[in-house]
UniProtKB/TrEMBL annotation:
The lineage of its organism: Eukaryota, Metazoa, Chordata, Craniata, Vertebrata. Residues 149-280 form the Helicase ATP-binding domain. Residues 75-101 are annotated as: Disordered. GO terms for cellular component: Ski complex. PANTHER family: ATP-DEPENDENT RNA AND DNA HELICASE (PTHR12131), ATP-DEPENDENT RNA HELICASE SUPV3L1, MITOCHONDRIAL-RELATED (PTHR12131:SF1). It comes from Denticeps clupeoides. The chain crosses the membrane at residues 12-34. This is Ski2 like RNA helicase. PROSITE patterns: HELICASE_ATP_BIND_1, HELICASE_CTER. Keywords: ATP-binding, Helicase, Hydrolase, Membrane, Nucleotide-binding, Transmembrane, Transmembrane helix. GO terms for molecular function: ATP binding; hydrolase activity; RNA binding; RNA helicase activity.
Length: 1026
């Protein structure tokens, strides 16, 4: 009993969070979820008054080493809490009576003081080396009221908690943290199982998903799941895993979600609450226990080493004075055009010698000011290594620290073979670490990364050159954070850091209980960065959580196999379909329709119904044509700088704009545009016209402001552009954007717009006034030369429909605009369609994938999973390819080491030569997918396979030492190790699949292959688990 309670405490206390118990206890007593315990037929009856009030609190991680509550209120005492519970329950019932839409996400107030904490809790279970925040004190106080009853329930109904993390390294770290304080903790990763019977299990989210699909017994006893770093749901590749798990978790499981960067927490919580039918309590705080100060650094020599300029103070004020001081300091060493607002277009590339000068100057300066340890975020593995190697003359440790580092390094690596201890990377890192310098990125050997992390946490690594993954994977704060650059490559091109990325990394500065403030420094190597870009990065809103839900063959086959949840149910409950909660609005529309008089169809209104159907078809035809135009190469070419467009979105209706800048991101293409609007409506958008009053009219009239004309500069998406006009304007984009961004700063907000903006705005207004009925758009066929049958037929149909509108008599009726029934009926029909399966965005792709599975005999015509389908269910990635290789006996003739080498193409991520044997199967699957309409081309499908480590893996499998295989490739050692570790998981999956088929020979061969690669430095146990 005590042990299990301790484990629950550790989930928060070890990370300095002290509010978990309040939810756990309230959950047991107030939610009613476990009135009947698992395995029993009867239970206890609890009062309804406060049912489900604290079921699934959404928590948020602070931007330092502690956990913090996240959003707005918290009860000061148990009595006031009970009152709020009753009020909340009463309000919910009143809302239901009045037919209001139920809100599942509930912000919680954390502002109530707790002055008598020491009196209430004289002997806390754990003592902290710092003063608790108010919300933390309140949580501990409230927990004490319910502790005895909770312990009783812990004895009566044993249960489990699962803590999930996005990456294995974080799982290992948390296992050590929890295990050191409390004993009953287990770890489950792809290659390690430690104490799997523990009441608290730590695992990656993928492991939990596998448990849910396979009906693991762990789920039966599961009570809580904690999702750490839940903003990982934004990850394009793995975000779908979080959605799958959240959707599939059983009803009796409560959830806690933690993140530092979720600006749309209420929206996200609303989705979770709706699919789980539970209130979600959103708890957040914007207060940092250690405030941050952000600086610009322009020094590069002993003479200039003190050129550190405060840009954003601890209270969040952006100091333009500091910015201009940095520009002034840099003036003598930069070109003249960098003097006003920074060198926006000046290259930030520097030579190795220049970088060395900057780093030596800065690190000497910080060391003198006792502002180490430092994390230096560098967005290139090569540059991390180069920066560290270039500091050969820098020594930041004393003799005692050198001795500690040497002793720990030797002890940690003692488990390695003699040859492995002499690897070049290990020798280099040993020299760097002795001088207090470390490097941390995916190319570093896993055991070395753990040594570096542990030395850093002890303060023995004074400067750590790290990539962005350090901020995500390791919870280790520093005194100072330095940004080598504010630009990174995101896979498609270079861009500035997003606000959420900057916050995540900058938040590593400041150690609670040690530092009054954390220091963040941005290097200005060649020039000072653009002011507006810095302001956006530091004070902009983090990227909102967006659904990355997608269909995979494994998901489809697993859901067809278990039958507990249909694939369409999974799609309907996904975050991407969160707009589907419209039942209350549907009921309201039906009620409104029942009170309206019947539709008039006499006299002039006799053709009203036909008119309505005509404009509906015209609207759909026009929208379809516009989508085709915007997705075409010629359409995108037309959207160049200076093109006048018609903008229609939630902010504008038929407002003219001019394109100023086109983003290079082909996936999320954006068009920075100047759009005219009403004076005073710049923030909310300028259109005073709306189509909601009379949506049955076909509107082409352009927006013309009723008062003075103003403007706004916005990033438009393709769907915001309703027409590409034939007009172009001569504009100076850089001046317009710079002037607009400058006037967004408080200091310059009242300045008049620059000449370039004024001219463009007046030109757009003149065009709107001279074309009030609409402006000529580029013709898809004649102007853009789109000659496909669909486009030509669409244009002809659009023209015919437009011409037919002239013949309708109903538009001349004095009561035409009063025919509200048709508007409401259309809205109702749209809502009914939206909540139907037919509107699911991924439904067509689902049918396409089902056809592929049927063709390959994974499922039959009735959707029943066949033998090949059951085999594919055991494989987490490349499921079709591996299954086909298995059934075609491609692997059977190969020796174990040859099988391992061949399968390495599935886990390596760098491209080189190909092997025809696997490519033929991959090409066939890719072509079959294309035949059934799946967007991925055969070439793209085949290109996923990388054979660059085939020889390396083969040599490793036959017993060659790691030092020798490292000489066979220029791939970094850490990447090789990670590839072989992932390969082991693939071999296990193939072994399990072979046993399902009944091929025991192949199964044993895969087992021998796995044993052949599981050795030495590649599979050395984590330092965190021993």
């Amino acid at each position: 009993m005590v042990q299990r309670s301790a484990v629950f405490q550790e989930l928060w206390f070890s990370a300095h969070v002290v509010y978990f118990f309040i939810y756990f206890f309230l959950y047991i007593f107030l939610s009613g979820l476990l009135t009947v315990p698992p395995g029993l037929k009867a239970g206890m009856d609890f009062s309804e008054t406060s049912a489900a009030l604290f079921l699934s609190p959404l928590l948020k991680r602070s931007r330092s080493s502690h956990w913090s509550l996240c959003t707005d209120t918290f009860p000061p005492s148990s009595s006031s809490t009970a009152t709020k519970i009753e009020e909340g329950a009463k309000k919910t019932k009143e809302q239901e009576k009045e037919g209001e839409k139920k809100r599942w996400a509930i912000p919680v107030d954390i502002t109530s003081p707790c002055d008598d904490f020491a009196k209430r809790i004289p002997d806390p279970a754990i003592k902290w080396p710092f003063e608790l925040d108010v919300f933390q004190k309140q949580a501990v106080v409230f927990k004490s009221h319910l502790l005895p009853l909770c312990l009783m329930f812990s004895l009566a109904f044993p249960s489990r908690t699962i803590y999930t993390s996005p990456i294995k390294a974080l799982s290992n770290q948390k296992f050590r943290d929890f295990k050191n304080t409390f004993g009953d903790v287990g770890l489950l990763t792809g290659d390690v199982q430690l104490n799997p019977e523990a009441s608290c299990l730590i695992m990656t989210t993928e492991i939990l998903r596998s448990m849910l699909y396979n009906g693991s017994e762990v789920i039966r006893d599961l009570e809580w799941v904690i999702f750490d770093e839940v903003h990982y749901i934004n990850d394009a590749e793995r975000g779908v895993v979080w959605e799958e798990v959240l959707i599939m978790l059983p009803e009796h499981v409560s959830i806690i979600l933690l993140s530092a960067t979720v600006p749309n927490a209420l929206e996200f919580s609303e989705w979770i609450g709706r699919i789980k039918k539970r209130n979600i309590y959103v708890i957040s705080t914007v207060k940092r226990p250690v405030p941050l100060e952000h600086h610009l650094y322009t020094g590069n020599s002993t003479k200039t080493q003190k050129e550190l300029f405060l840009l954003l103070d601890a209270t969040g004020n952006f100091l333009t004075k500091g910015y201009y001081a940095a520009v002034e300091a840099k003036k003598e060493r930069t070109s003249k055009h960098a003097q006003s607002f920074g060198a926006k277009n000046t290259s930030q590339n520097t030579s190795t010698n220049q970088d060395r000068a900057v780093w030596l100057t800065l690190l000497h300066f910080l060391s003198q000011r006792e502002q180490t340890p430092v994390v230096a975020f560098t967005f290139s593995r090569t540059r991390c290594d180069d920066n560290a190697r270039s500091l050969a003359s820098l020594d930041l440790t004393n003799s005692t620290e050198k001795s500690e580092i040497h002793s720990f390094f030797q002890k940690s690596l003692s488990r390695l073979r003699g040859g492995d201890r002499q690897l070049p990377q290990i020798m280099l890192m040993r020299d760097l670490l002795k001088r207090g310098i470390g490097v941390h990125h995916s190319g570093i050997l896993p055991i070395l990364k753990e040594v570096i992390e542990m030395l850093f946490s002890e303060g023995l690594v004074k400067v750590l050159f790290a990539t962005e993954t350090f901020a995500m994977g390791v919870n280790m704060p520093a005194r100072t954070v330095v940004f080598d650059s504010i630009r990174k490559h995101d896979g498609t091109g270079f861009r500035n850091l997003l606000p959420g990325e900057y916050i995540q990394m900058a938040g590593r500065a400041g150690r609670r209980g040690l530092d009054a403030t954390g220091t963040v420094i941005i290097l200005c190597k060649t020039s000072v960065h653009d002011m507006a870009e810095l302001h956006t990065m530091m004070l902009g809103k983090p990227t909102i959580l967006q659904s990355q839900f997608r269909l995979t063959y494994t998901m489809i086959l697993n859901l067809l196999r278990v039958e507990a949840l249909r694939v369409t149910d999974m799609m309907r409950r996904s975050f991407s379909e969160s707009h589907r909660d419209s039942q209350v609005l549907i009921a309201e529309l039906r009620k409104s329709l029942s009170t309206l008089p019947p539709l008039e169809t006499e006299g002039q209104l006799s053709d009203l119904l036909s008119y309505y159907h005509t404009i509906t078809e015209l609207r759909i035809t026009t929208q379809a044509l516009q989508r085709t135009v915007l997705e075409s190469v010629n359409g995108l070419k037309a959207l160049s700088v200076g093109r006048v467009v018609v903008v229609s979105n939630v902010q504008h209706t038929n407002a003219l704009g001019v394109v100023l800048q086109v983003s290079s991101d082909a996936v999320n293409r954006a068009f920075t545009s100047l759009v005219i609007c009403e004076k005073g409506n710049e923030e909310m958008g300028g259109a005073t016209q709306t189509s909601s009053a009379t949506p049955h009219l076909y509107r082409t009239a352009l927006f013309v402001p009723e008062g003075p004309c103003s403007h706004t500069v916005q990033k438009l998406k393709l769907q915001d552009i309703s027409a590409i006009t034939s007009k172009t304007l001569k504009v100076i984009p850089e001046r317009i954007i710079d002037n607009y961004n400058k006037r967004q700063q408080p200091r310059f907000r009242l300045e008049p717009p620059g000449q370039a903006i004024s001219t463009a705005t007046q030109e757009l207004l003149r065009l709107a006034e001279s074309n009030p009925g609409g402006i000529m758009a580029l013709d898809p066929v004649n102007d853009l030369h789109l000659k496909s049958v669909d486009v030509v037929e669409g244009v002809m149909r659009q023209r015919a429909l437009q011409e037919s509108l002239r013949d309708f008599k109903c538009t001349h009726s004095p009561t035409f605009s009063e025919q509200e029934r048709m508007c409401l009926q259309e809205e109702l029909d749209q809502l009914l369609f939206l909540v139907s399966d037919q509107s699911l965005t991924l439904l067509p792709e689902y049918h396409q994938r089902i056809k592929v599975l049927e063709k390959l005999n994974y499922v039959d015509g009735a959707g029943a999973v066949q033998l090949k389908g059951r085999v594919a269910c055991q494989i987490s990635s490349h499921e079709l390819l591996l299954t086909e290789l298995l059934f075609e006996n491609t692997l059977s003739p190969l020796a174990p080491e040859e099988s391992a080498a061949l399968l390495s193409c599935l886990v390596f991520t760098q491209n080189t030569q190909c092997i025809e044997r696997v490519l033929g199967v991959a090409q066939r699957i890719g072509e079959l997918q294309m035949d059934y309409g799946i967007a991925q081309t055969a070439e793209d499908y085949v290109s996923q396979l990388k054979f660059g480590l085939t020889e390396v893996v083969y040599c490793w499998a036959i017993g060659m030492p790691f030092a020798e295989i490292a000489e066979l490739t220029d791939v970094q050692e850490g990447t090789v190790v990670r590839c072989i570790q992932r390969l082991d998981e693939v071999l296990k999956e193939v072994r399990q699949a072979a046993r399902i088929v009944g091929d025991s020979v192949l199964g044993s061969k895969m087992e021998r292959a796995s044993l052949a690669i599981r050795r030495d430095i590649v599979f050395t146990a984590s330092l965190y688990t021993h």
